[in-house]
Structure formats: C-alpha cells, structure tokens
TrEMBL record:
It comes from Kineothrix alysoides. Keywords: Cell projection, Cilium, Coiled coil, Flagellum, Membrane, Transmembrane, Transmembrane helix. The keyword Membrane applies. This is Flagellar motility protein MotE (MotC chaperone). Residues 13-54, 130-157 form a coiled coil. The chain crosses the membrane at residues 60-81. The keyword Transmembrane helix applies.
C-alpha cells in the first residue's frame, strides 16, 4: 500500500509540471502575438501615413497640371485674338469688348484693324464700320417704302382709269342712242318714201323765224354737207384694200359714229369685206350704231 501512494503522488507532481509548462507556453505565445499585433499596427500606421502624403502630393500635382493647361490655352486664345486670325478679333470681339477695361488689351490694335480693313476691303459684310452698314440698311428701307408707295399710287391710277372708262362708256351709249333716234327720224320723216326730202326741209327752214331758221338751216346745211363728205369718204374707202380701211376704222374709237355713217353709205359687198377683217368687238359696236335695234 505504501508503494501505491508514492506512485500516486509522483503522478500528481508530473501533471502539475505539465500544466505549468502549458501555461508558460500559452503566456509566451500570447506575448508573441501581442508583439506581432503591435508590429502590424505600426506597419499599417506607417503605410496609411505614406498613402496620405502620396495622395496630397498627387492632388497638388493634378491641380498644378490642370492650371498650367488652362493658362496655356488662354494664352493661345489671347494670341489668336491679338493677331486677329480669321478676323475674329476685329470683327467679332472688338465691337463687344472695346470698352471693357483690361480685357480690351488683348484686342487687335486699331492700326492693325484699319490696315486689314483697307487691304481686304471687307469688314462688316463689305462695309468699313457698323454705322455705315446700318446707314445703308436704313437707305434700303426708305427705298422699299418709296417703291411700296409708288405701287400704291399705280394701283390708285389704275382704279381711276377704270372709273374713267366706265364713265366714258356712258357717253358712248348715249351717242349710240342719239344716233338711233336721229336715224329713226331721218328714215321716218325726212327720208321716208312719201317724205318731203332734205331739200324741201331746207326751203321750209328758210321761210320761218329768222333766228330759228338760221339755227335749223345751219343744222340742215351741215347735214347735207356731211352727207356729201360721207359719200366721198365711202368712195375713197371702197377703193382701198379692206384690211387697210379696217385698220383706219379701228383707230376711230373716239368717233365710231362717223365710221358707221361712212360704212352705211357703202355697198353691202364693200362694207362686208371691211367688217370681216376688223376687230370683232369694234365691228360689233359699229354694227350696233348702224342698226341700233339689232
């Protein structure tokens, strides 16, 4: 029994030693892990600090490069405007920016603009200044107004002429009616089959009241003379070519009554030839005068 108790005590001592060694090992591992964690934390801190420095430097670099590019482009544009490449500076920017302080320094000089304008002769669409172009536009507007006024005046003149034509047609119709009444009187009274004739009327007029007789006598004598003249005209026109006679009659638009009297004493054959080659409208008017009842 004593031997058994000794063995048990030895086993207990061995287990305690193992536990102590295990605890020591665990503590050693924990310390190592803490040191490793601190080392990693320090490395991460250093990396973050380096990244912050790099990003700050990179942002400044990008800003500087961008600013440099913008400045270069502005310088190029200012140079192009100053040299008046394509006339952009003188024709577009100068009228707008010439009174703006500082900015107008980049505009082409007045002498250069004048020289370019003198050499090319082209500025503001071919004009030396904007004022000249505006002045010419106003002149064109005045000419347009004058043309419109002239057109309106012409329209009024045409309307007046049409009104005058209508007025004269009334006189023409009255002339036709007068000729019809006169012809009817001659046919039914003076030149009727049983009528006394123009010579008898002439004698009758000579025997009545002197003043009245004088007036009536002149009318009858004039009628007799006109009849003789008309017969002579009719003879002359009968001997002409129909086309020539028709042309003359057509020109007598202001005295178609005389034309109708001349044609009425011509033979039907000669009268038909002339009327056949006349303007249809004029021929119709003359026919109506010669025979109002038709």
């Amino acid at each position: 029994m004593p031997n058994t108790e000794v063995i048990t005590d030895i086993d207990q001592i061995t287990d305690k030693e193992k536990l102590a060694e295990e605890k020591k090992r665990l503590k050693s591992e924990q310390k190592e892990q803490k040191r490793e964690a601190k080392r990693r934390a320090k490395e991460l801190y250093l990396q973050e600090a380096q990244l912050d420095d790099d990003s700050g430097t990179s942002g400044v670099s990008v800003f500087l490069v961008t600013t440099l590019i913008v400045v270069v482009w502005i310088a190029i544009l200012c140079l192009l405007v100053k040299l008046d490449v394509g006339g952009f500076g003188s024709s577009v920017l100068t009228p707008v920016l010439k009174n703006v302080p500082v900015i107008n320094k980049i505009l082409p000089s007045t002498d250069e603009v004048t020289d370019i304008t003198t050499e090319t002769g082209e500025d503001y669409g071919g004009y030396k200044s904007l004022e000249e172009a505006v002045k010419y536009i106003k002149e064109l507007e005045l000419e347009l107004q004058s043309a419109q006024s002239a057109q309106s005046t012409s329209s009024e003149e045409v309307a007046n002429l049409k009104a005058e034509v209508e007025r004269l047609k009334t006189f023409e119709n009255n002339q036709v009616e007068f000729q019809r009444i006169k012809t009817e009187f001659y046919e039914e009274v003076v030149y009727a089959e049983n009528g006394p004739g123009a010579e008898e009327y002439k004698k009758y007029y000579e025997s009545i009241d002197p003043a009245t007789a004088e007036y009536l006598y002149k009318q009858v004598v004039q009628q007799v003379e006109e009849s003789n003249d008309v017969k002579e005209y009719a003879q002359a026109y009968s001997e002409m070519k129909p086309k020539e006679a028709a042309t003359i009659f057509e020109s007598m638009t202001d005295n178609l009554g005389l034309a109708s009297r001349i044609l009425s004493v011509m033979s039907a054959q000669d009268r038909g030839k002339i009327l056949g080659v006349m303007d249809p409208a004029t021929a119709a008017r003359i026919t109506k005068i010669m025979d109002p009842e038709s």
